[in-house]
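# step 3/5: fold
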Amino acid sequence: MRTCLTQMCRTGLALDHPEWIPSIPEIRSACEKRDEVNYSGYELSISTMDTSKFYCGGIICVTIDGDVTPCSVIRKGFGNIHDLPLENIIEQYRDELLFARLHDPANIKGNCGSCENNSMCWGCRAMAYYETGDMLASDPLCWNNPVNNLR
């Protein structure tokens, strides 16, 4: 059976429930099993989420409240369709919504910018945002990050 992993971020109800956030070893175990089942024989990994950088850098989300975000997990809006037409929001915030700066790995802070999986993964932007406040930071819960192997 193929699986789809979505990381739990420290936001919303999870702020009061740190026990909901899996540990680095739990994340690694889940990702390794997912890779074995879904990507057998393929050496690269998509890390903590089941979306590649091509998906994340090519979609936008409109929340139920009308906020336009770069990700269905990130709730930081770049405009609201109740205030401005969607095409105007996209025109004004295209780079932020499509993570344009991240297409150059040099703009990714920390390990994600130099990771061997960078050809298809740039870490979870939602995790980076909710853990560090910076969408350009490395995914702090990625099990491929050597810093996390020290935990």
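# step 4/5: annotate
The two ends are 31 Å apart (CA to CA).
# step 5/5: archive (pending)
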